[in-house]
Amino acid sequence: MSHPASPKSLEQLNGFTFEKIINEDPATHSLTLLGSFPDAHGQNEITAIVRIEKTALNASDAERLFGENSMIRRAVLEESTDIYTWMFAWLGENRERDVKINVICPATEVHIRKYTRQEVVMISETPELYEQVVKPYIQAFPPSRTQWVENILTGLSEQNKLLYSSDQFVILPDMKWDLKTISSLYLTVIAQDRTIRSMRDLRKEHVGLLKSIRRKSYSIVKNKWDLGPGSLRLFIHYQPSYYHFHVHVVNANYQTGNAGMMVGQAHLLEDVISLLELEDGTGPGIFERMTLTYAVGDQHGLHKAFKEAGAVLDG
């Protein structure tokens, strides 16, 4: 039998007296509130915790999300650049926005493979494997694949979103962030240097650039959102999602199932700087000489070549 103060109806739920938020979890789209409900006689307040979570979208509704009888009642454009568009949408009126919609159009087969659920395998990429397989793979990408990056760097798009711009790099909110939930803050720093395609191209001469990225990221986040360096996680992907050097700046408390923040793809900027500082400035760079172990999905363009080369880890 439930406690007499426990709400059994919307009317009773509306009797909740809010005190404060005790947890916010962007990964589960939930808020946990501390407050109280009146007792059965309305004389005393009973302390209560209320957790509100947005329910998952139902797969059976997929065909009804868009079209003549669309479940989406309203949508507002956030940004559109090259093939990428971001929108916020509502499933009803007079309510908080329900969903963030990311559109890739036109989508290539590469995009389709990337966004398809896939099994991952751990591979070991030696310097030789990088030269023989990975580097040609990266060089084969047409400029059109990163045209949206060029549009940002050359001032053709997203200029109203830029938090910082210089001849070295730009900083702007990442497309994954909803622009308001500080606990899931996510920014991207994009380098102006087109010769750095991935972490493999970093050398000791780039330490100054990386430290500038770190320093400016800390400064901007502190000034705009009052989060100190200890509240941020700065990292680099390898393999990255696109081959133009960029750094991710994320709230350190953002807990998500996103594989991009896990061991096997994310490399902390601090560690990368420390490794580069170990170089003596002569001979091949440390990232030219390292064997890198990471996860690759079975839909990734490199997966087949890695299997054929025997790079998949096998005890």
TrEMBL record:
Residue positions binding substrate: 148, 158, 174, 176, 237-248
Cleaved signal peptide residues: none
GO BP annotations, alphabetical order: deadenylation-dependent decapping of nuclear-transcribed mRNA
Top-rank taxon, per record: Eukaryota
A Pfam family assignment: DcpS
Transmembrane regions listed in the UniProt entry: none
InterPro entries per the UniProt record, alphabetical: DcpS/DCS2, HIT-like_sf, Scavenger_mRNA_decap_enz_N
An annotated GO cellular component: nucleus
Active site, renumbered: H246 (nucleophile)
Assigned protein family: Belongs to the HIT family.
Designated name of the protein: Scavenger mRNA decapping enzyme
Organism taxonomic ancestry: Eukaryota, Fungi, Dikarya, Basidiomycota, Agaricomycotina
